[in-house]
Amino acid sequence: MKKIRRDVRNLLLIFYDASKVILAGVVIGGITPLYTEPTIDLNLYVVVAGVIVTVLLAWIGNKILK
Q: What is the domain range of residue 42?
């Protein structure tokens, strides 16, 4: 692995951590009501948007690394 500067590494970690937070908060948080009350409809738009933002932030972090 190439040596990268500390600033670039910190920026990379910010994007990866943001993608993990979005995944945990939005996607998993949008799915959990299905387990508590099966009569509630799944808000599919929120889950899909959360997955897209998660992938986008992880992709940006990967581009910064390369």
A: 15-65
